[in-house]
Amino acid sequence: SITSTLTTLLCLSAPGGVSLVIPQSNINATVAQNILLSVEYSCRGVATIEWKHVSSWGTTKIVEWKSGNYVNISTVYKDRVTTFENGSIQLLNVGMRDAGYYFITVTEEYGTNTYGTIIVNVYEVIYEDLHFVAVLFAFLAAVSAILICFMWLCNKSLHLFQKKTTHKLTASTTEEIELETIEC
């Protein structure tokens, strides 16, 4: 392809072995995000690029490829890694286990090599977004409003009940007084 031919031409024209540039050596990401481990290399011959991941869970070889020839992706990363001719890789849908150190080794066909490291920090999102908090707040406000209305209705009913009971008592007391006066 044209890109592999251009890469090979760049490697042939680069003086003095292998050079590697890492524009961002520390990457912060959240769970389920896609991240780009960006690098740019140049060399005299055809380069072999290898990426490894090192974390508290161990060391895993992610991918190895020779510019313009083959790509060998680890089965663990098969559906999650995209490679680029400049040596960069993209990790899809990162998780907490993806945090750690990513080591790149670029080796040119004459044996010269260079190394680089990118540190990836992955953070878990406690709340997906403010939408969750807003819905929860609205739900609690609605429940509170319903309870307040229920308490108001209960209070009114109790007040009416007490008023009727008091009225009946005064009426029966008046009848007793009238009855007593007639008997005398």
TrEMBL record:
Residues making up the signal peptide according to the UniProt record: 1-20
Chief place where the protein resides: membrane
Database matches in Gene3D superfamilies: Immunoglobulins
Keywords recorded for this protein, A-Z: Glycoprotein, Membrane, Signal, Transmembrane, Transmembrane helix
Ranges that cross the membrane: 130-154
Gene Ontology BP term (one): filopodium assembly
Localization (cell): Membrane
Immunoglobulin domain sequence ranges: 24-123
Gene Ontology CC annotation, any one: plasma membrane
Protein name, as recorded: VSTM5 protein
Lineage, highest ranks first: Eukaryota, Metazoa, Chordata, Craniata, Vertebrata
